[in-house]
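Title: Request for sanity check on Trace amine-associated receptor 1 prediction

Description:
We are preparing a figure and want to confirm that the structure record we downloaded matches what your pipeline produces today. Could someone re-run it with the sequence below and paste the raw structure tokens into this thread? We only need the token string, no images.
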Amino acid sequence: MMSFCHNIINISCVNSSWSNDVRASLYSLMVLIILTTLLGNLMVIISISHFKQLHTPTNWLIHSMATVDFLLGGLVMPYSMVRSVEHCWHFGEVFCKIHTSTDIMLSSASIFHLSFIAIDRYCAVCDPLRYKARITVLVIFVMIFISWSVPALFAFGMIFLELNFKGAEEMYYKRTHCIGYCSVFFSKTSGVLAFVTSFYIPGSIMLCVYFRIYFIAKGQARSINDASQKLQIGLEEKNGISRTKEGKAAKTLGIVMGVFLICWCPFFVCMVMDPFLDYAIPLTLNDALIWFGYLNSTFNPMIYAFFYPSFRRALKMILFGKIFQKDSSRCQLFLESNP
């Protein structure tokens, strides 16, 4: 039997036709994703905020990204969950715009942070002797400011000025004629613009930087046994930068980039193609791809916690309640001067 989102049947969107068992399974899966996202990113935020040894410019960039991902899990995913399972929006038209804008903003901000982290690691590997002088707290602050402000201006400006469906008004109102609809809609122009701004540019930066780091690390590995290279390594370690550590950073960056591409590429490709296919991609598939993209925010803290010993030690101290002990913020999480 067909059910509707609202009592006024002739202007209401159609509710989900899934059985209660299917809905319960979907809710359980999505709640698990939300809780994992919140808990994982909260652990990263607490670790960097509490432990003084983690108070480095790079880690403040990671802290900012974890904050973005935490807000995405707390402010966006719960409402997206209800919309995805019920196929209805019960929270009003104004909040629909706020939710959509916040969704685009935080998702894009998370991707922006990943690209800036890649740039930071590139500077650490390519010019380690001048890294501390070049990547200062001010530079990191500028990166963080850009990562928040550009997505915010882009997302809220596009949605509240209704630029996202400019040039495709007829199709937009045809798809949103019913009460209970709330899904992001892009015209051909705005879709390409969103694809370039939120995915193509930061993704290309990550890709180019990773390959550059990979070839540099490979070249360093080949010359590691050379006497002059050993002398240079000793000098760099004296300045707090080790080749081994940066090699691990390059490996981690590659995994971060791979996870990013796997999670977000399907959604952005479908998003930019949908207007050119006369909006033939089903809303259910679009919702599924959005949740696949959300998983990037779930995996980010796992990657850092798993690959960095300092974060693993911090996580253990948090879980066992040792952060409440006196002077726990000054605990030695690693031997080097940089994580």
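Thanks, this matches our download. Residues 20-268+282-330 form a domain with the Rhopdopsin 7-helix transmembrane proteins fold (CATH 1.20.1070.10).
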